[in-house]
Amino acid sequence: MNSSELKALVSLLDDSDNEVSAHVENQIRALGDDIIPFLEKQWEESGFDPILQKKIEELIHDLQYNNLLSKLKKWKKDGAQDLLEGLWLIATYQYPELSLDNLKQEINKIYFEVWLQMRDETHPEDNIRILNQVFFDKYKFSPNTKNFHSPSNSMVNQVLELKRGNPISLCSIYLLVAQKLNLPVFGVNLPSLFILTYESKSTQFYINVFNKGLIFSKKDIDSYLKQMNIAPQPMFYEPCSNLEIIKRTLVNLVVSFTKNSDNQKSKEVNILLDGLKEEE
Fold it and tell me: What is the pLDDT of residues 145-203, one digit of tens each?
């Protein structure tokens, strides 16, 4: 289909005949996300036609959303190896043009600062203290307690920019830096709180990134669970997978949109979450 034919097709989106406009929408959707740049150009050229512009906006969103869902499923199918890629995919729900390479550069900046101070250190807790100093004192990462349910807390680009986040987003960035430093640091799925564990053959302790990287022990988790009146389970003490981190991030995002009364976005993110639960 050439440019003229595509323009003619787009011009029929606001046709008064609903059957015609619906048929046209289906034809455009069938072209896939490669058509998005053309649709964006047509939106700019549509001038003062708000109905047509709204139709184009909805089509672009649908195409981007379906592309995101496919990419998330592929990420899982490929083994969910790259946590940053999973976080990037979630962020593209709100920021479709977001660059994964830019996120990698931001993580590398933090990594390099820590690496410079850690080169001669071998003791696990001292390594974590150095990482804490860079992460919290130099880069000023902190919990977003004032706007805890803001969707931005689940968007890795926003957390890297604003240095504010919820427990799992702060843990995820901290974890990415730690693992790049070859530290055996992993996520742990606690009820109502996401934490990290440093687990090697010789030692294991826990890190509360939402509380300035506080180091604590298994006994502290026991006390926490007792206060919450929750029976201990192995998953509350042991590392979880990248897939579990991404699923919990999506759950948080659903809660955020629900708390902000954005039911359409809450529904769409739930579908993304269901896509990661398929065949489990």
Answer: 999 999 999 999 999 999 999 999 999 999 999 999 999 999 999 999 999 999 999 99
Report pLDDT for 280. Answer: 55
CA distances from 76 to 73, 218, 247 (A): 5, 31, 11
Task: Report residue 105 as tokens.
Answer: 């550069």
Asked whether residue 89 falls in the same domain as residue 217, the answer is yes
Domain containing 37 equals: 3-77
* Cα(172)–Cα(157) distance, integer angstroms: 12
One domain for residues 54 and 110:
no
Strand, coil or helix: 66: helix
For CA atoms 206, 141, 247, 176, give the dihedral sign. Answer: negative
Q: Specify which residues 193 forms β-bridges with.
A: 190
Number of residues assigned to the chain: 280
Same domain as 148, residue 260: yes
Average pLDDT of the segment spanning 7-23:
74
HSE toward the beta carbon, residue 13, CA cutoff 13 A: 25
**Whether residues 59 and 144 fall in one domain:** no
Q: Is the separation of the CB atoms in 29 and 59 below 8 Å?
A: yes
| Tokens standing for residue 107 | 């993580």
